[in-house]
Amino acid sequence: MALLVAVLLALALFFRATALEIAAKIALNAYGFDEVSLSIRSVGTGNIRIENLSLSDQISVNNVTVAYRPLSLLSGQIDGVNIEELRLDISNPDQGALKRISEMADGEGASVDKDTKRPYPEMQLQKGIIVAENANFFLSGSFTGNLSSDQRVKAESVFQARVETAAGPILLENTEFSIEADIAAQSAAVELSEGVFRHDVDRPDWAPLSLTGTGQLVDGNATVQVALQTSEGKPLAQVEGHYETATGNGNVQASLSRLSFRRDGFQPSDLSRYAANLPLFDGNLNFTAKAEIAGKAVVYQAEIEMSSLYVELGDGGVSSERFPIEINGRYLLEDGTQDTKVTVPKLDAVLSYVGQEFAVKDLAASLDIVNLAETVKLASLDGIVTHNAATTYFPPLLFSASGEMKGSQEVSISSSVRDEMGKFDLDLAAQYQIENGSGNVSLCLPPTTIGSQGIMPSGFSSLLKQMDSLSGVMKGQAKITRENDGKLVLSAMEAELSDGGWQDVDIEAKGLTLAITANQADADAPVRADIVGKAGSARFREQGIAIPHLEASFEAEHQNLQAVQSGLLTLSKLTIAPGDGALFKEIQTVTGTGRLRENDLDFTLDATTDFLGSYLEITGRHSLSSSDGRAQLKVKPISFAKDGLQLADLVSFDAGVILDGQVTTDATASWTTSGLNSSAEVLLDNLSVEASGGSVSNMNGKVHIDELLPLTISTPQEITAETAVAGIPLKEPVIRFRVLTEDGDPQLFIDRMALGLVGGTAVINEAVIDTGAETNRIEVQLTSLDLEEVMALSNVEELVATGKVSGRVPLVFGGKRLIVDEALLAADGPGVLKMSSEAARRALEGGGEQAMLLLDILENFQYSELSIEIVKTQSGEDTVKLHAEGANPEIENNRPVVLNINLTTSLDKIFNTVLEGYLLSEKALRATVDGR
Asked: What average pLDDT score do residues 641-658 get?
């Protein structure tokens, strides 16, 4: 080429510019350049000035000055070349003039003489412009440089490049490039500085980055070192590469050590807009990467580790000592496509939220990324989550998930959660829009058996320990939506319990069904829930009931689905029907409301029946945190009347009584996880009772009941009455009593009962009626009874007695029998026995003088001592033995006489009434336990 220039210059001396242009074109055509354009401005003895020379649209020069000496020019030598402007278009280096120059450099093409010993001229380029453009790539730059006579090159350039990718164009801007090369030695040194690497879209994926670097070329092998940092100068990565020009193969290694992120400092959002919605975090990023360049493909690998990681969340955070990531992928240079597999081999992390701590163990994940996050597929995500607390919310749970992220930055995930025993399985599906932070999670609980045949509620969560009495099949589904501002909304929820049951110390229920539906219109709206259900049969402490209908609703204020702080519970209708052994007879309908304030539920309930209407008001409080509570029950005064409301209308057992008067009851109930306790105050206001064996009028008293079920009255209570009739009139009866239960059998303790009887008093002290005993013994103490009235109760005709008697009457009750065990009455002082019976005289006429004498004495027997012994046997026969000592003043000069008389009579009028009263008391006691 140098020879060609020399020849042209030699010709120019003789043929000047015009001839020279013609000759030059012919010569260049001979070298294979078919599109030559040449314009020579002037030719002189020491230089030639070329206005422009174009070999094609790929290569052109303007304002070239070639310096020479005439004698040297004849030998093919020139002294120097100065090029004001050079333009190169290297878009298609395998075509046109660029291809021909490459062939000539390799010794191909037309045969020309080569003189490698001839010295090279010095060349100076004042301005060079280079461009390259194809479908996916554009390069432009300006450069200056010079070539010494010993083939040493020194050049400086500023250029920019543009690469089209699936994520949008990537620019390398204002990059300063300098090179020093030795052409003869095929070596070079390159320095790169001030380059800016950025994503050229309206909303770039990362912030602009700065590039600096160096490179070397030795024997056709290139090495490169590049440093990547933020626009503020924060180091990000170091890159080293090697490239073989002969084969087109190479490799690149990159590394980063301890890139520190701080919540109050540098964050990923400083690099990429996609990280704008990431929570703030602390951590140190380390990574190493390498890539192999083979022709048109780049295969790369990377290992990334985030150490000392802490991610800040609203009410907690996530921490991990080590978060490893492995990356393997390929990038095709021709079409700009890419695919990458990202794996997390093992991760242990701790999540803290609202004062609770949850551990994620053995987490492993695998992602497939296509075309720079145009599509991201979560192939697998597996791990175990546990609750680190003494009282755990849930047992260790195994989870697995898969999903994808599309180019629209929409993430979709499907997952399943199960317990280690395989008795619980929960399916989840989630969508999340990274760009605006919105999304939703759908949960589905397939039919799951709870109870002893499946998973115990406490086995799933210690918070549900009080629900271990529940059994059945549960299923449900829910959808939670996350709005753009990060607020959570319960969009929909459905839960159903079927074939349910409940079994604890106090309550047994079967045939339970329960359905709950809930939703929330938006984040600022309350959660509204509807509840319907029923129970086929139930038993509460031996009281059989059924709940044919339950209907309720709930409205609560939520803050991002955290624990409810306030809410309103409305019980629209709860129907309670009597079952086997129930005390009550009518269907009870309960309505009410409850107000939730933090952990306390304050409620008011109202119970109605057809007979009574609204008769019961219940107010109380239940603690959700401790599961205990207390309630006050106020029963409106119940008025009984002979021609109106009666006890038989309300209770299921036949009390056999007619009531007239008023009863008022107030009760208190309290409960804990251990059970229920209840007490009451019963006020009797002029209550009269009539039964087949007698009656009691105008009873009054206030009775405190310590426990309703079983009935317990531990301190003596007192009831008084005006009168009573139990075969005989009783005056002003009063009883002081207690009621206890032992082994399920009620016991009535009569501390004292006193009443007026036939002119005297009857008293019972320290007696017990035990419904669990075969027999009960009660001893009645009688004082100053009017003997005349006592004798009138017997069937002994025409026997009249005066005086007062006192004594005791032991009564033994067994089943429906009454035995009098040797009752003994004694006269308090002297008195008179008179019996004037003509029928007796006729009957005793054949008895002789002694028999007639006895009758004479009895007509006016004035006794000084008298006793009566009464016996009633199991056969029911009544025997009365009369013993008296005294005399008749009108017979035998008042001679002392001792009388022993056996009277066969019937005292059923008295004792049947006593037995009926006992049986009625026993029946009432039993009803307090089992409703019999």
From this structure: 82
